[in-house]
Specification:
The chain is α/β, with parallel strands linked by helices and 341 residues long. Helix content is 56%, strand content 8%. The protein is built from 15 helices and six strands. Helix 2 (58-62) links the parallel strand 3 and strand 4 (72-76). Helix 5 (136-150) packs across helix 6 (156-166), helix 10 (217-229) runs antiparallel to helix 15 (310-325) and helix 14 (286-306) runs antiparallel to helix 15.
Length: 341
C-alpha cells in the first residue's frame, strides 16, 4: 500500500526516504529494499540503526569502500531525531552516495528534522509515502489491495466486514487477509469473514447492533446472549448499539439531495457505511430514534452499575431498538418492562 511519491521507483536507488508514521508501511518499505538487494547479492549486509546508534562519523564508517566491494543496506530509523552533527554527516553523504550502498531513511514527516527531509528530496532520493491511513475509505482501499496482492477475490461486503471486525490496525488487517487467503478456497464474502472473526468483541458487538437496528430482534438477542456467554464486555455492546442508532438519526436528519461524497464528509462516515445505514433506516421514525436512544442510555447506565441485572437491561434495549426499527413505538410511548426471551 505504500505509494510512490517520486517519479522513479527503483528499490536499489542510492537513497530511499520513507515518510510517515504508519509502522507497517515503513517496515514494508525497508523490506522491499532489502529484498531487492539480496535478490542481486544474497550476502548483502543490512545495518538497521536508531538515532542513538548513529553517532557523528558512524555513517562515514559504514559507507566507506570495502575491500570486497560488498553490497550494503543502511537503514536509519526515526531520522527526524538525529543529532545536529549526525544530520550534517547524512546531508554530506546525500551529495555523493557510495557505490554498492543503499541508504534508507525513515522520517516521520513532520516539522521536526524537516531540513534533512528537504535535503534528501533535493538530492533526488526515491520517496515512499507511509502516512497513517486515518480515513475509513483509505483503510478499505488498503484491505482491497491486500486481497489483490494475494491474488484472491473478496467481495466489497467482506472487506467492510473485516474493517468492522478488526478496526484500523493495518498489521491486524494485513494478517487477517493473509490468513483468509491461505485458509479459504474460492471467493471470500461476509459469511467467511464472520466465521473467522465473529468471536472478536468488536465484531460481535456491531453484529448485535446491526441486527437490532434492522428490526431483527430474535437474531439480535441470539447474538447478544452468545456474546455475553463468550465474555464480551457489556459496555462494548452498549457502545455499538448507540453508534448504530445515532447513525440512523444522523442520516435521517441530513439535508436531502447532497452528493454521496459531500454527505460522507458531513456525517463523518465512509460512503459504504452510508449505503449500509440507508438500508437499515427503512421503517425508522424520529420518535423511534428518540425512544431507542433513551433505551441505550438506560442500558449503558445499567451495565455501569445502576442496575442489578445488566444482562436484562441489554436484552431490553435490543428489543426496544428492534421494535423502534419497525415503527412500533410512537412519541412518548415507553417500551414495555416485559423481559424478552
Amino acid at each position: 500500500m505504500a505509494r510512490k511519491a517520486a517519479a522513479h521507483d527503483d528499490p536499489l536507488a542510492p537513497v530511499t526516504v520513507a515518510v510517515g508514521q504508519e509502522d507497517l508501511l515503513l517496515d514494508r518499505a525497508v523490506a522491499q529494499v532489502v529484498a531487492a538487494a539480496r535478490a542481486g547479492d544474497p550476502d548483502t549486509d543490512v545495518r538497521d540503526l536508531t538515532p542513538d546508534a548513529l553517532q557523528p562519523g558512524t555513517l562515514a564508517e559504514l559507507t566507506s569502500p570495502s575491500l570486497f566491494a560488498e553490497r550494503k543496506v543502511v537503514v536509519v530509523r526515526n531520522a527526524q531525531d538525529l543529532s545536529a552533527d549526525t544530520v550534517k554527516d547524512v546531508k554530506a553523504y546525500l551529495t555523493a552516495p557510495a557505490e554498492e550502498i543503499t541508504l534508507v531513511l525513515l522520517h516521520a514527516g513532520g516539522a521536526k528534522g524537516k531540513g534533512l527531509l528537504d535535503a534528501a528530496r533535493k538530492a533526488g532520493a526515491r520517496e515512499v509515502e507511509c502516512a497513517r491511513l486515518t480515513k475509513p475509505a483509505d483503510r478499505l482501499a488498503f484491505v482491497r489491495n491486500e486481497f489483490r496482492a494475494t491474488g484472491r477475490q473478496a467481495s466489497a461486503g467482506a472487506c467492510e466486514a473485516l474493517l468492522d471486525a478488526l478496526g484500523s490496525d493495518l498489521r491486524e488487517l494485513a494478517s487477517a487477509v493473509a490468513q483468509l487467503a491461505a485458509d479459504v478456497e474460492g471467493g471470500i464474502d461476509e459469511r467467511v469473514v464472520a466465521r473467522y472473526y465473529t468471536g472478536r468483541a468488536e465484531a460481535s458487538s456491531f453484529e448485535i447492533a446491526d441486527r437490532a437496528v434492522e428490526g431483527r430482534a430474535a437474531e439480535a438477542l441470539e447474538s447478544l446472549r452468545w456474546a455475553l456467554g463468550t465474555g464480551v464486555a457489556p459496555v462494548l455492546i452498549t457502545s455499538a448499539l448507540a453508534q448504530g442508532v445515532r447513525s440512523i438519526g444522523k442520516l435521517a436528519s441530513a439535508p436531502r439531495g447532497m452528493r454521496p461524497g459531500d454527505l460522507a464528509r458531513e456525517l463523518g462516515m465512509p460512503p459504504w457505511k452510508i449505503d449500509r445505514v440507508r438500508q437499515q433506516m427503512r421503517g425508522w421514525t424520529a420518535d423511534g430514534v428518540s425512544v431507542a436512544l433513551r433505551a441505550v442510555a438506560e442500558a449503558d447506565a445499567a451495565v455501569k452499575g445502576a442496575a442489578a441485572d445488566p444482562e436484562y437491561a441489554l436484552e431490553r434495549a435490543v428489543v426496544v431498538i428492534a421494535r423502534a426499527a419497525r415503527g412500533v413505538w410512537g412519541a412518548g410511548k415507553p417500551p414495555s418492562d416485559h423481559r424478552p426471551g
